[in-house]
Amino acid sequence: MEYEKIAITGSNGFIGRNLTKNLLNQDKTIIGIDNFSNSKKKDQIEHPRYSHYDIDIRNLEELKKAINGIDAVFHLAAQSTVPKSTKYIDKDFEINTKGTLNVLKISKETDAKVINVSTSTVYGIPNSLPTSEESPIKPISFYGASKASAESYCFAFNGTYDTSVVSLRLYNVYGPGNRKGVMWDFFNKLNANPSHLEILGTGKQEKDYIYITDVVEALNVALDRGEPGEAYNVGSSCSYTVNELAERIFEIMDIDPEVTYTGGKSWKGDVEKTKADISKLKKLGWKPEIGLDEGLKNYYKWFKRKI
What is the spatial distance between Cα 161 and Cα 181, in angstroms, rounded to a whole number? Predict the structure, then answer.
């Protein structure tokens, strides 16, 4: 099936902007949904085949009006941080779970395929590394819980109404355009003071990082070939400690700072070790193309242009 008219919730966020540009380059018509809660209006995309709607996904009636007659939806809009989910539990649930439910209700009426963007935090502390999609869903954060609940509604809509919904469990996405996360934090700290870096915790936290263009390609593959009712991991299947990230960034910036540690554990709900088993998505023809060193260099070049 050809998907010509596509809606993207969270279209002005980090992943949403990159996906929007990619789809516009494929001559698609894009309906962007974003209330700018995590981005700025001045960064809004302008293009003759792009229409933007300043809508909160919790507003079902407004959402219906905006995405009537579409062929597919990429659902990225979310409250997407673990610390905020702890502070604002109800809001996190309303946006991530009830917002997803609204998208699913509309997809049932329009027969649109839905790519639900989920997260590796649904696994909580994984039983094994690398972690496959068959691993238990045991989130340890409210963010992970709200996204796991949203996934459950996706599976239920597939089973009850025979809708076409695919979920992608993203690991740590980085690259040009991202203004949060450990890499962004290190760039900012070291730009302000190249002689010293304070690292949260012990520096031994070890995670899977995936570059933005590889994520955009995974989203395209999920739309074209993703099986309804299935979930797919999107990661690099490589993991790096925070200390290893710091060392690579020092090399790129050509600096040799003193490193100190706050000690103790990270924030509540943080999963300290992650590594994706990506064999399921690779069977659809996808694989990550950008390694960490190349990705960090690209990210730092963008950072220098933006400061």
Answer: 38
Q: Which of 258, 212, 198 is nearest to 15 (CA)?
A: 212
Asked if residue 280 is part of any domain, the answer here is no
CA distance 27 to 5: 10
CATH number at residue 247: 3.90.25.10
Q: For residue range 170-223, what is the model confidence (pLDDT) as tens digits?
A: 999 999 999 999 999 999 999 999 999 999 989 999 999 999 999 999 999 999
Name the 3-class secondary structure at 141.
coil
Q: Phi and psi dihedrals of 189, rounded to 5? A: -60, -45
Question: What number of CA atoms fall less than 13 Å from residue 171's CA on the CB side?
Answer: 29
CATH of the domain at 148: 3.40.50.720
CA distances from residue 72 to 57, 69, 100, 114, 244 in whole angstroms, order as listed: 16, 9, 14, 6, 39
- For residues 114 and 259, state if they share a domain: no
Q: Is 272 helix (H, G, I), strand (E, B) or coil?
A: coil
Residue pointed to by tokens 């890499």: 183
Answer yes or no: do 96 and 222 share one domain. yes
> Which residues neighbour 57 within 8 Å (Cβ) at sequence distance 6 or greater?
9, 33, 35, 63, 77, 95, 99, 102, 103
Active site residues: 143
Question: How many domains does the chain divide into?
Answer: 2
For 86-143, how does the pLDDT look when each residue is reduced to its tens digit (9 = 90+)? 888 999 999 999 999 999 999 999 999 999 999 999 999 999 999 999 999 999 999 9
Question: Which domain range does residue 103 map to?
Answer: 5-173+209-234
